[in-house]
Amino acid sequence: MAEIVKFDKLSRFKDAASFRTHLEDLDLPLPVDNSILTADQGSPLAQPVTVFGKTLSNRWCIQPMEGWDGTEDGHPTELTLRRWERFGLSGAKLIFGGEACAVREDGRSSPNQVMITPETKDGVAHLFQRATETHRQHYQTTDDLLIGLQLTHSGRFSKPVNRHQYSPRILYHHPILDHKFGLDPSDDSALLSDAEIEAIIARYIQSARLAQQIGFDFVDVKHCHGYLGHEFLSAHTRPGPYGGSFENRTRFLRTIVEGIRAEAPGLGIAVRVSAFDLVPFKDEEATRQGRNKGVGVPEDFRHCLPYQYGFGINPANPLEYDLTETFQLFSLFEELQIPLINVSGGSPYYNPHIQRPASFPPSDGYRPPEDPLAGVWRQIQVTRQLKARFPNLVLVGSAYSYLQEFLPLVAQAEDRAGWVDCIGYGRGVLSYPTLSADSLQQGTL
Fold first, then answer.
1. Closest CA to 254 of 267, 268, 269, 239
2. Which of 181, 284, 348, 411 is deepest in the core (most CB within 10 A)?
3. pLDDT tens digits, residue range 222-244?
4. Strand runs (DSSP E) across 275-405, as ranges?
5. Which runs of E-coded beta strand occur in 76-191?
6. How far is CA 81 from the centre of its chain?
């Protein structure tokens, strides 16, 4: 039986000093400023940053999210438009592909995920227009606003028909995830052929061209959270041109980038990437009490060693991350002249406490096996290591939402220290759209 981990809720701490003491007790050297600084007071988050030829006047970033509130044929709805209006209202100067848009029907993560296709182009254009018009109305100009669109195929976690039933498209059989999500390891019908991969690549390029025609500054070629792009990075056991060697596992990305440069010249290219991973976790049912979920414990991986089913992971001990190949990937980003990278980790499907630290479990998840602050610190540390090694890349950090009212205090200190360039938050903007504007204009939340 897994031990139930008890941790203090952040609401217990009424000021930066008490929060800092708590972090010291946890042996987490997370930097925390004493007060929120406005732009006029010299907030580090109000320092300009230049990317894709635009100079942004602050360092707040809206993360891409999957709203699952589109129509069945992939168009945005009024709910989607309202969300994008709030992105524009936020005051953040970087909207990092605010909507995860599927490039193909079979790659939707829900029957209501928005798509970017010739048929839905006008609807997606309305999202862009709503965000830019709202931002201009409240902040007078969009000359310092950078907006991207995230392009995605959900791969193993596709649910294009029924949001309660996976219709996986995979690159290789995974000895843990196949069983975890009900895929017969002897059923190869879910495996994407090389020809199908090439067709998906063509759709990414087509979608990027549509995004450019709408007016987006850049596209995010998604490589995170267990979706198709991320699974390519871990396709060690796949034969052929898209698996095995690092060169083959990055062929998907390189071919898409080459195609976008040819078909949509001048369009910026960014990547949101899970820079590290850990083995899948599961709910330890023995700890269930009433409606409470059990604590997360690692899946049994003894039959999988050395572990060849992750990226940025220690093959001898998949409970640890290893950035060796991550550094290699970031070197490739530099070679491909991809200047903007959004750093994340893990997957919400099989280790959510790694990807999005939170005190409450997701509906299909488990109670966190560690203090969520440890998860926040892990992602900050990884981003810090990457920034130190690749100072010329503009890096967006993730996993800040759990910090709640302490988010600006940590963000200021981290940015001042040079650990990251931009501070990304997604869930936070849904509940508090003007967090970034309030912090920079008023110095209070």
1. 269
2. 411
3. 999 999 999 999 999 999 999 99
4. 281-283, 296-298, 340-344, 394-397
5. 94-95, 100-102, 146-152
6. 21
